[in-house]
Structures are given as structure tokens and as C-alpha cells.
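User: Just a sanity check before I run the rest of the batch. Below are the C-alpha cells for the first item. I only need the designed sequence back.
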């Protein structure tokens, strides 16, 4: 199965390095002028993508730039950019393009687990869902949390409290997990989110709590940051690769 990768950041690199047969890297979709890091053909226009599946590793910007054209052309686009769905106009244009062209957008669970449990629980009805994202201060670089002076923090700082839509729109590179939780569970407005910069942790720590007709659960995941980007967890890259691999598996765990 020929895979095209969008972007050339640490997640793209992880996918490129770990693809194994029958998956093979066929193409990279990059910004104009960007060089492919590997000996792989690069294109900058989504209309030039020629692959069986597309792995979007370019965040919300990449999905905004290329998602509609790829979906309109009928591609299956695997992505981690759940935050894109917090932008109602972008979400609508992605869904409309997929409906018109027969493409599909597949959201990998990303840096958090228990998304399967949450979506099963949704079937019976959920009453409350809460997500807490805790990262070392360096993991919040380039986000609105910087206004609190991340480098001088000596104790945990809650820099965002609100709903999943506001979290995803304000932190598009750091709150994709909040958006995934919202989409799998009780929606963007009803999902409660807290984002914390904590000088006392080394891992990107994601806690998910849910209540509903099924009962309740609480789960915490301590994910090691990806070499090259303290904002992203290695588990997110692994999750995207697993989603691609499940596309060719005879037996699939969902
Ligand atoms: N759902 C989840 O759990 C997680 C989701 N993510 C998402 O995955 C994305 C990728 O992660 P990293 O590799 O760590 O981030 P990164 O921000 O370092 O890399 C993004 C790459 O995409 C490229 N890019 C951006 N816009 C583009 C466009 N229009 N066309 C082509 N390339 C474009 C950039 O040049 C860069 O190479 C993040 O931006 C974030 O949105 C990251 C971690 C967890
Ligand atoms: O990788 C992580 O730990 C989570 C992340 O960046 C996101 O939710 O966008």
C-alpha cells in the first residue's frame, strides 16, 4: 500500500522511518520549496498526490491547506489533527469534500488511550467528560501559555480551563487530544479541559475521566515526548502508524 506523508516534522519522520511492508512510502506533500528529508518524490500540490492512503502529519495548517482537495479526489486521509474539527467552517469543508469525492478522513486516537472505551460509552449515553493535559513547560512553547513565563515556573500552572472547542482553537498543536476526546465523547462544548505546565513532570501526561450509563472510568497516560518536538508525544506517531497498519490487516482491533 503506497503511503503519501504530509509534512516533514518529527511525526512525519517517525512514520517514514517505521513504515514496513506492505506499507511503503511513495511521496511527500510538502510546502513549496521544502526538501524531502529522504530520497522520496516530493510534491507541493494535493492534486499531484498519487498514493493509496495519505498520512497527514502537518497539523491543522496542513489539513486546512490540503484536506479538502485530497478528500474531494477520493483519498483516505489519516490524521492526528483533530483540532481542525473545532473550527466549524473547516470541519464542514472537510466533510463536504469527502461526501462529494468519496474520500474518508480517519482520526487516529493520538497521544491518549481509552478513546475506544469513551466512544463505546457514548453509545449508552455520557453525562460528564473531563480531560487534563499536563506537560513539562517546554512542551507548551509557542502556545498562549508562554505569557506566564514558562521558563521561570517552579510549580504547576493551570494556564487553560474551559471547553474543548476553545482549547483546540487556542492550542492547535497541543490540544488535539482534547478535540479527539470531544469528538469521541460528549462534544466540544460539554467536554471540560484543563491544561497544565508542570516543571515536576518529564512525560506528557494525559488524564481522561468519564461518567455515564456505562459507569465511570479514569485513565492516565504518561507519554514520552518525541525526540525533536517536546510538544508531541511519541505515542501520537505510533497511533497514526497503527491506524495505517490496520488498513491492511485481516484482523482489526477497533
Ligand atoms: N492527536 C494527537 O494526539 C497529536 C496531534 N499532533 C498533531 O500532529 C502535528 C505534527 O506533529 P509534529 O511532527 O510533532 O509537528 P511539527 O509542527 O513539528 O511538524 C509539522 C510539519 O508539517 C509541515 N506543514 C505545516 N503546514 C503544511 C502545509 N500546508 N503543507 C505541507 N506541510 C506543512 C511543517 O512544515 C512541519 O514539517 C502537530 O502539528 C499536531 O497538530 C501532535 C501530537 C499529538
Ligand atoms: O502529543 C501530545 O502529548 C498531545 C498533543 O500535542 C496534542 O494533543 O496536540
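Assistant: Here's the designed sequence for the first item:
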Amino acid at each position: 500500500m503506497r503511503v503519501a506523508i504530509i509534512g516533514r516534522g518529527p511525526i512525519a519522520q517517525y512514520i517514514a522511518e517505521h513504515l514496513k511492508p506492505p506499507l511503503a512510502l511513495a511521496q511527500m506533500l510538502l510546502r513549496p520549496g521544502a526538501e524531502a528529508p529522504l530520497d522520496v518524490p516530493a510534491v507541493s500540490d494535493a492534486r499531484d498526490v498519487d498514493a493509496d492512503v495519505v498520512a497527514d502529519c502537518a497539523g491543522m495548517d496542513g489539513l486546512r491547506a490540503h484536506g479538502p482537495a485530497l478528500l474531494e479526489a477520493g483519498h483516505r486521509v489519516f490524521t492526528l489533527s483533530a483540532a481542525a474539527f473545532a473550527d466549524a467552517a473547516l470541519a464542514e469543508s472537510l466533510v463536504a469534500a469527502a461526501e462529494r469525492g468519496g474520500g474518508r478522513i480517519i482520526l487516529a486516537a493520538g497521544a491518549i488511550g481509552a478513546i475506544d472505551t469513551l466512544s463505546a460509552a457514548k453509545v449508552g449515553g455520557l453525562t460528564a467528560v473531563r480531560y487534563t493535559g499536563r506537560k513539562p513547560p517546554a512542551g507548551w512553547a509557542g502556545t498562549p501559555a508562554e505569557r506566564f513565563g514558562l521558563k521561570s515556573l517552579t510549580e504547576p500552572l493551570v494556564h487553560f480551563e474551559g471547553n474543548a472547542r476553545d482549547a483546540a482553537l487556542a492550542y492547535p498543536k497541543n490540544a488535539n487530544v482534547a478535540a479527539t476526546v470531544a469528538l469521541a465523547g460528549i462534544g466540544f462544548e460539554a467536554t471540560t479541559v484543563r491544561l497544565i505546565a508542570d516543571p515536576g513532570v518529564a512525560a506528557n501526561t494525559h488524564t481522561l475521566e468519564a461518567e455515564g450509563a456505562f459507569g465511570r472510568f479514569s485513565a492516565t497516560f504518561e507519554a514520552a515526548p518525541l525526540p525533536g518536538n517536546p510538544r508531541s508525544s511519541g505515542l501520537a506517531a505510533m497511533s497514526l502508524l497503527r491506524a495505517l497498519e490496520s488498513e491492511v490487516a485481516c484482523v482489526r482491533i477497533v
